[in-house]
Amino acid sequence: MNRKYIHLVILLAGIIFVGCEDTYLDRPPKDRLDAETFFANAKDLEVYTNGFYQNMFPAPHAYESLDDADDNIVPLIVRDRVKGTRIVPVPRGSEGWSWNDLRSINFFLQNYHRCDDEAAKLKFGGIARFHRAFFYYNKVKTYGDVPWYGKVLEAGDEDLYKARDSRKLVMDSVLADINYAVENIPAEVKLNTVTKYTALALKARICLFEGTFRKYHGLEDHQKFLNEAASAAEQLINSGAYRLFTTGGANTSYRELFARNDQTTTETILARDYDNEFIRHSLAYMATAPTAGAWGITKDLINSYLMKDGSRFTDIPGYTQMGFYEEMQNRDPRLTQTTAGPDFTAYGETVREPVNLSGTTTGYRVIKALPERKQWASMSAYNDIIYFRYAETLLIYAEAKAELNTLTQADLDLSINKLRDRVAMPHLKLTDANASPDLYLDAQYPNVDQGANKGVILEIRRERRIELFNEGLRWDDLMRWKEGRKLEKPMVGIYFSGLGSFDFNNDGKTDVYLHNGNASGAPAGTPTIIDIRQRPLTGGTSGNLNPFRETVTFDENRDYYYPIPIEDMNLNKSLVQNPGWE
Amino acid sequence: MIYCNWQQLRKLLRMMKITVFLILLSLTQTFAGSALGQNSRLDLKMNASLEIILEKIEEQTDFHFFYRSEEIDVQQKFNVHIENGTVFELLDDILPKASLSYQVFDKYIAISSSRNKLPGATGQTAGQQQKITGKVADAGGLPLPGVSVVIKGTSEGTVTDAGGSFFLNGVPSNATLIFSFVGMKAQEIPLEGRTKLVVSMEEETFGLEEVVAIGYGTQKRANLTGAIDQINANDIAIRPSPDIILSLQGLMPGLNIQPNTGDPRATPDINIRGFNSINGGSPLILVDGIEGELERINPADIESVTVLKDAASAAIYGARGAFGVILVTTKTGKEGEIKINYSNNFGWTTPTTRTDYISDPYLYGKTVDDALWGYNGTTYTGYDEEDWETIKKVSTGEIEPFHEIMPNGNAKFFYKTNWYDYLFRKWTPTQNHNISVSGGNEKLKGYLSGRYFKTGTIEDIADGHLVRYNLNANLSFKVNDWLEISDKIQLSTNDELTYGGYKGDWYDLFNSSVTMYFLFPFEPNFINGIPFDKNGAGAGAALESEAYWKRNYNEQVINTFSATLTPVKDLVVNFDYSNKIYHTQNTTRLTNFDYMTGAKLMAQTVGLNRLTESRGRSHYNALNLYATYIKNIGENHHFKLMAGYNQEEYEADNILGEQGNLLSSELSNLSLGTELLRAGGSASLWAVKGIFGRFNYDYKDRYLLEVNGRRDGSSRFPKESRWGFFPSVSAGWRISREKFWEPIENAVSSLMLRSSYGKLGNQSVGLYTFAQTMNNSLSNWLIDGNKPNYVGVPAPLPRVVSWEETSTLGFGADLGFLDNKLKASFDWYEKQTTGMYLRGEPLPSVFGASEPKENIGGLSNKGFEFSLGYQTKFDVKGSPMRIKASVSVSNFIAKITKYPNPQGVMSDYWEGQRLGEIWGYHIDGQFRSDEEAKTYQNSFTNPTKSLGQVYKYIINTVQNKEWKGLKAGDVKYVDSDNDGEISKGNNTLDDHGDLRVIGNALPQFPFGFSFSADWKGFDVSMAGAGVMHQDWYPNGDLYWGFYYRPYLSFIRKDLLDEAWSPENTGGKYPQKYRGYAALGANRSLGEINDYYLTNLGYLRLKNLTIGYTIPQRITRKAHIDNLRVYFSGENILTWSFGKLTRYIDPEQAGSGINLSDPEGAVKMNTGDEWTDYPLGKTYSIGVNVTL
Questions:
Q1: Which residues share a beta bridge with B872?
Q2: What count of CB pairs under 8 Å joins A to B?
Q3: Which site among A362, B97, B1054, B1161 is 20 to 30 Å from B227 CA-CA?
Q4: Strands A495-496 and A543-544: what pairing?
């Protein structure tokens, strides 16, 4: 080949390469969806809303998501909010002041109209609004007034720097969202996704919270929310879609409901499905591990369980110095389905467990939602976790009516007494309750409505605390009832009359031996030996186990809300810190 | 001696197998008439018959003689006298006297009558051929062995023997001989009829004529105007490491290599000249001109490694050169004889740190109990006095370990288990084998090599491994005088097998709570032969049964076709087209296993039954076309012009499948699954292209100028901002070539001043900045038992995205002293990066996403590099000794010059922020008494609040009343701003409370050194590296032990020794009862302060190699050209400048700062990386054989 010819070819080739169209550099992604064209059909809407759940519903071992951060459970490490030692966080967006989930929801609501499937738009639009209502409900619970954003914020948007909106505005918007959800999501029974019924359950919860919060904190318009709460609950009850889970009878159904691996839709409205292969949680670990949760139920909750005949335990003379075996006798059957009683056997087992108090701070173990033994290790449990269940709706119905002063015996029979029936407890009688309000509860809730319904309201609160124990609602209850100072009351455990041997299950053998440094007196075979120098009692050598030996101060002017992070205050000068946190 | 007649010999030769004949022929070709392979020297003084003389020669040398007895009178006598002469000298002396001649075939010498010429073995020996003998010596007259002597224009030649002598037969009398030797100037000597030559080789002035690889070409080292370093890889190729990366550490100033872990499967971080962008980014690595990975190259294949450090030298790579460029040139076939080289290496690796954690069950139990007691007044062990006495006896060996079942059904344990030694091995074996063949002639050259590398892992129970194979073949054809075509194929595989996991999921054995917590020495690892783990994670049991394993395998093929054309004189056109195909397959298999757990000793079958398979394939191709034209005008003006085009595209596809409940636990195939858990995929792609050019001019090699430019486009950017232009210019002045220099030439033998300025782009910004894209993922919220798909919200779209730009100004000087034996080089640079693509101005968190990135940041980086090299040669006991030594040091300071943060929020960047600065509190020692502590605490009003940010744990959280509140031994924070509280203020620049800058987390003044020497057959070389200073605030379990979490499995022994107590008031840590005090924020040891800030500075002998080359006169007898045995040690000596515990490796702890990812240096986001796979020191031995 002629050299010059070759030369020419190379030059030409070069020119072609250099001069060719820029399309060589156009490389649109192959595995990602273009936001411009998404939300075209029902499937797009469904798939997008599937992403809301895992963020919106905290795992049961997540920070402050259950009752180990209130007065129901004393964990190994007591939470700051219980001790009154919260401090103002520094990093922006930290400790609850996070808004990422809202952006995700608003992005959906801003774009889902592109879909031309009207039915899907109504359904998934409703589901997105459900989540937005839930999001703002949590924000308002935590911070009071918060800024309302119904759109996706862009970097230059002035609204980034706006002040908080009023609680009224925000809660009215929440109500509008949840009403939309109720009206537009189909009435289906589904365990793991939001339905019309879930929306009703959430609406009832939100409105009860807001109604009672406003009532007890002296804010306006509480009746509106209490009415909404009652009507939402009533609508759900009347739908007939759910009934209480009673399989196994009075002495096992309550425990079975939570401990079983897989939920059913009998009573459960929304649950998170856990699975050994995919995803597990640590609830059982926190309830059993001496080195992690070491959960212990507080004595005042144990005292709140009625006797089997409906009378009050705390009316029994000398109840404060009653031994363990004795106090466990003839009580509301939910007691020994919530804590380990004298005859406790692990779920699915038949042999009675030796008494073991090492994994519980107060001596009262948490066995509600404790699955079979092999799931007790860290991140090993896969029993489903309930987020909404029918029993709560019943309780809301009764409480809202009671706080509205419209409660009737028929209302109680429709609600609270259904719960009583499940565990074969006598019915709650409106007139009896109001005739003699319980002094023990009255001392716990000094701010309770002092009107004609005081007695029944106290009983509804008792029922609620017992039935919904460790379902993550107790802190909110104390806040909305303005009973934060309840946290200042002692949180203690099992009573021991002195050092020496104790028989916890009345079989004639020593189960627990208390000593003050010399355990030599413990009979051979004693399963639990306690050195009271390590685990002190309230009265020195006698009294209640006292794991949480701190003086708590709940600041009425500060502690009903959380502080906003310092950096967010710096970045938005219009934000005003919550009172007492400045 | 073989007596036979010549015809018989020829018959014999014919009868030999053809292969043998070929070998013989090739040998006769390559050694044509040479005495190279033989011991050819002898002493002989006698008067004897030819027969006797030949016999004596055969005795003293390796030669054998053939002759036809009927043709030659072997009985005629000769008088010979030779001392240390060659056979040929002797034969030359006597044979002509009897009209005889000889010819050499390897070690066979045929003698014939001069009248009857033997058939020539080499075609070229016809005509006026003659025998040439000679001696080669260096300038000092010392004989030089191993000098290559080649007849110009042929592939024939020889090498001088140990005495510097050579012998060539059949050389045309008008031939020219080329003498070459490493480190010496090559010489061409025309024979002009001479048959004896005495050649004196001159040493090549250090580096002066060396040719260095630069972007799209080469340059004489002396004419470099940019900051470029090159090392020849021969010296560092054979080490017991999986790749060359760590071997480069400390060899070139400004090239920073950081190993993060001792895991041979991990790739160290590579960085050039520190930070360029907050956005991060790494050097562009080009292997023979195409993008590649250092870890995939067989170290023995590497010819040289060149680092382009400044903008001027990297600008030819435009967009991707901002972080510097590393050019790797691999070996190709050389003209000349065929060489076969084999080398191997066997090594054993052990951690550099102490690993003797507390394993005495008594001490351990007491320690854990004390730490927990201080927190909440309870103990872990629950042991009473009697139990402690028992366990003491177990500890001393008085009684055998045992456990007893207590009445509540729980077991109580009295064992003595060293969990660390159970899980991890002391010595990890490594082996490496390399073989290569190379050679060729003018028309065809080839190189072929292969490697096998295998190393185990530190896990002791199940044998994981890393195995690598490399195959490298290249061939080059010189088609004619204007076209050369070559092709190169590189194949590499990487096979990693790891065991690990616990009952719940896969987990690596290191860096996981599975092994870090609850492995108590007083608990057993086996009960009745079943793996036991009281806490129940089951890491040991999973290993014992090899139930959980992970195999990562990948293979890569690169094919590069190249053509070089020289269409007209001085114009060279290069074309190359490369394809890289990469395939990866990762398998994770989990099966059920048995173990025993809990205080109740429950035997359980646990674990998951799952198989996860992922497969990935990527394809990359690159096309380079460039031409270089050289023009000299007159004698003094030298021009060089280069222009070219480059395009590259990349596309990758990955798929993943996961099945559960497989029908067999033995087999691992997706077809056996009964529950489809997951199926997924991903893809990525990008493309770049650019045109570039370079112009060089020099006047008399004295004034040098270089101009570069490149225009680059990238698919990562939106159309409107896709293209960028990146120019650079550099100039040099070789002052020592000036006339006025002559008077001082004796003092300063050379001086060159350099300067450069250039602008580079950085495109490391993520693949698809131009569109709002949404990912489809699987949610952990199951719906009806399945993981549903979900599509997430897209990240906010940035307003405009384009290139980050880095301008670099640099000055440098190269000096030579003592005839250039001592060379010094200094470089100073200043880099300004603008338009850094970063998170935008901090937004209130109601925004709901990370701030969209914008081209908004600025960064400056100033630094220097200095290196000093010395090489010399002198005689020791009559033999030459060569010595080479070098030291280098560098440093840089980087600052943020632009970033919108009007509020001065310190969790973000701010203008003027020096990268790496550590903000912390000042601590004024420890309280000496409880009174002092109490007085301090009470001197603050409302201590809960005013001391809460640092003592929250001690004042509020601790539940043990006795230990609540400050005590003797606790650290004393200082209220530096006297505002009555210890706090961070608003954590802004205006109000940062008591925080001060207390140190800098960046490595300061990294340095390196090397030394090598050889004498007779011995060689020794050393290489070291280190940093002068680096501040580190300790974090993590291994450092803080029980102060972090009381139930830590591995507690270092020295921690307890240094805990403050009334008896040990010198202790640096609080009393041992302060369990959890270091766990996190708001804790006295968890907040960053100057008391525990530790200097990680270190000096480390990275490598020491001692070798011995067995003399050729011995090895030649076994047909071996060269045989070297050596011992090598990696990381064998370390000096730590600070007071760091020996349980933590300073280099590994320092790797928390990744120079390719400055975010960590700003955020002080100190991870737990030092609890990772420990760095190792390796001892190895090996041989190196050349045939």
A1: B883
A2: 273
A3: B1161
A4: antiparallel
Residue spans of chain A under pLDDT 70: 1-22, 61-64
CA distances from A354 to A347, B87, B289, B694 (A): 14, 99, 73, 85
The span from the CA of A147 to the CA of B844, in Å, is 12
ipTM of the complex as predicted:
0.93
For residues B229-255, one letter each, b for 16 or more C-beta atoms within 10 angstroms of the residue's C-beta and e for the rest, the string is: bbbebebbbbbbbbbbbbbbbbbbbbb
Torsion of CA B199, B201, B202, B208, to 10 degrees: 130
Q: Which of A441-445, B31-35, B615-619, B860-864 has the least mean pLDDT?
A: B31-35
Provide the pLDDT for residue B1159: 67
Residue pair B338/B1181 in contact by the 8 Å Cβ criterion: no
CB A500 within 8 A of CB A326: no
Instruction: Say whether A103 and B685 touch across the interface (CB within 8 A).
Output: no
Environment class of B957 (CB within 10 Å of its CB; exposed 0-12, middle 13-18, buried 19+): buried
Contact A304, A466 (CB under 8 A): yes
Nearest C-alpha of chain A: how many angstroms from B552?
Answer: 22
Mean pLDDT of B578-586: 96
Chain B residues touching A87 at Cβ < 8 A: 945, 948-949, 952, 1082
How far B1166 CA lies from chain A's nearest CA (Å)? 17
Query: What gap in Å lies between CA B1178 and CA B241, rounded to an integer?
Result: 9
Q: Return the CA Rg of chain B.
A: 36
- Which of helix, strand or coil describes residue B290? strand
CA A568 to chain CA centroid, Å, is: 27
A203: alpha, beta or left? (left if phi > 0; alpha if psi -120 to 50):
alpha
Report the share of chain B in percent with pLDDT over 90: 47
What's the whole-number mean pLDDT along residues B752-756?
Answer: 93
How many Å apart are CA A148 and CA A131, to the nearest integer? 14
Confidence of residue B196 (pLDDT cuts 50, 70, 90): confident
Query: If DSSP codes are grouped into helix, strand and coil, which group holds residue B19?
Result: helix
Contacts of B526 (CB under 8 A, 6+ apart): B532
Q: How far, in Å, are B528, B548, B572 from residue B1108 at the CA level?
A: 53, 45, 44
d(CA B713, CA B721): 9
What are A454's two structure tokens?
Answer: 């005081």
Question: What would the pLDDT profile of B1060-1070 be if each residue is shown by its tens digit?
Answer: 999 999 899 99
Residue with tokens 């490595």: B1003
CB A465 within 8 A of CB A72: yes
d(CA A364, CA A495): 11
Residue at B364: amino acid letter: Y
Which string of b and e fits B486-519 if b means at least 16 CB within 10 Å? bebebbbbbebbbbbbbbbbbbbbbbbbbbbbbb
User: Strands B773-774, A33-34: parallel, antiparallel or unpaired by DSSP?
Assistant: antiparallel
Residue B38 confidence (pLDDT) above 50: no
Six token digits for residue B946 = 């005013």
Verify whether the Cβ–Cβ distance A354 to B376 is below 8 Å.
no
Hey, what are B910's tokens? 């701010």
Chain A CB contacts of B903 under 8 Å are 570-571
C-alpha separations of B679 from A179, A192, B614, B658, B778 in Å: 38, 22, 9, 6, 10
Interchain pair B784, A7: CB under 8 A: no
What span, in angstroms and rounded, lies between the C-alpha atoms of A481 and A483? 5
Indicate the DSSP class of residue A463: H
Q: What is the spatial distance between Cα B97 and Cα B339, in angstroms, rounded to a whole number? A: 39
